[in-house]
Amino acid sequence: MPQARPLARIALNAALDALAAALAVLLAGPIAAPFHLPPPAAILLGAVAVLAAGLPFGLARQHWRFAGFGDVGAVCAAAVLGAVGLAAVSAALHLSLSPNRAFPVIFGLLAAAFLAGPRIVYRLARTRPRLAAEPADASTALLAGTLEDADLFLRALAQDRRQSMTVTGILVTGTRQTGRRIQGRPILGSLDAAGTLLARLAAEDRLPRILVVVSADLPGATLAGLVGQADAHGLLVRRAPQLTALDPATRPRTMELRPVEIDDLLNRAQVPLDREAMARLVQGRRVVVTGAGGTIGSELARQIAALGPERLVLLDNGEYALWQIDLELAERHPGVARLAVIADVRDEARIRAIFTDTSPELVFHAAALKHVPMVEANPAEGLLSNAAGTRHVADAARAAGARAMVLISTDKAVNPSSVMGASKRLAEMYCQALDIEARGERGGMRCITVRFGNVLGSTGSVVPLFARQLARGGPLTVTHPDMRRYFMTVREAVGLVLQASVVGLVEARLPGGEQGGIFVLDMGAPVKIADLARQMIRLAGLRPDEDIEIRFTGLRPGEKLNEELFHGQEPPVPTGYPGLLMAAPRTADPAIVGRAMEEIASACRGGHTRLALEQLGRLIPEFAHNADGRTPLAGQS
């Protein structure tokens, strides 16, 4: 039974094509020779000839609703072959078609028109633009994006019979297309002129209700500008699903528009990465990722698994988070051998035993306590995890013969005001010292440190917090009107971490590298947190300070207004690789740093937190501890 309907459709198409061919024969006679009708047999022969010529082109199987240039070309080819076939058969049967020898040509032209015409009319009827006949609740929209994406969106929209949207104009990248039309819709101007165009439409009372972004790869700055202009004129902004040229040829789909995410606004131009070099680094090697259940660690595990390691050891002290990433990798990369290990980097004996058993060649150390106020409330735990834990991992990796260890650091390690930042700076110092020492040894383990700012959507970060507060109806809490932070997507950050790992191992003469240089990711310009809050409110279709309150709560313990990626005495040094800079902060002897770290760890284990913090301050003289969150910090406004 399911087969019957398609066969009936094919039979109906064949009958309509035969009728069109017969009609072409009837009209071709008087056109070729007035008052002369072709013989009845010619009408039947014409229909048969066209049907037979159409078989190689699947003429009867064409879906009229989706008829395109290729289908029309097939129709024309079938008409030409049908005309040739009719002439040949008529000559063989000594059947006179017309006194005019041009009859086959006229028949072929008419047949092409009669075959293609109904297909085009049907396509237009089924995909007609929505104009005044739309339902009362139809929404008007402007499209924003490239010409190609706008064309694909309009085609897909025309096939979605449930979507009541009227597109009144298009904003495109570039200015050369202004004044032209796509599928009957006018190109009003460029994205750069969105503010002027929206103001003009508002003055003419032609402002649409919604602005639909149809291109997935618009730069974040461009998209943020569009959102700002749309918000100023009361327009909703939505993103279209990502379409391809194949989508319109599939069965009709519902056009689901989604809100613009804050990640979209912070999206930056993709930095070219050397994926082949990354694959050479990881492929066929034994790799350990600590903190594998966290935001950075789990993304490291995903990207490393895709590069084909011999074995991937996932290490974390959180059972549920570890189970989640292990399950995900089992589904995505079943061919990669994995080992999920519950362990705490503070347990030196356990870490050493694991590394002895697994013999890792590469270690990516992402395990850390990262939430500033939580570490301020539990400073001993932060020092044991971030500083002593890093030392345990580095020493165990070196003892196991690892080729390299990569430390994930933070911008909070620069001129730290918190215990978390100072503990990460101490970890940096130890890894720097080990790396300098390794350069003088044959086959010594390299220690590569990568420093960057906040990752969007990470556990405890401000974006998920704002999302939860928005869902509750506000208010959104911001610590200070002038607080700024660097942001980067987790995928981009981890890609650059892997790139830095490649560069750090291959490039022996990077500027500052011999002095224990630290890779710093190019984070772009810092973002004001209050502006981020307002942007998220607008993206939710609400008005800041009217629908949703923004409440300033004051700096929390350990916080400072502006994070830095470089110490004042370590200016950024280009590496020659996009997205990667290098800092060359001061270094120390690994034995000295190691002894100090052991003293700090002993004090923490013994409950002597004040003693541990005093020792930390001696090791890191720039540590300006903002313990109560109210102390003005040098260089802050």
Major β-sheet profile: 9 strands, mixed
CATH architectural group of the largest domain: 3-Layer(aba) Sandwich
How far from one another are the termini? 76 Å
Report strand order across the widest sheet. Answer: 10-9-8-11-12-13-18-22-21
Q: Treating each run of at least 4 consecutive H or I residues as one helix, how many helices?
A: 20
By secondary-structure content and strand pairing, the structural class works out as alpha/beta
- CATH level-1 class of the largest domain: Alpha Beta
Overview of the molecule:
46% of the residues lie in helices and 14% in strands. With 637 residues, the chain is of the alpha/beta class. The N and C termini lie far apart (76 Å). It has 3 domains: 4-126, no CATH class; 139-260, NAD(P)-binding Rossmann-like Domain (Rossmann fold); 275-453 and 489-522 and 564-619, NAD(P)-binding Rossmann-like Domain (Rossmann fold, 3-Layer(aba) Sandwich). Helix 1 crosses helix 2 (40-54) and helix 3 (69-92) runs antiparallel to helix 4 (103-126).
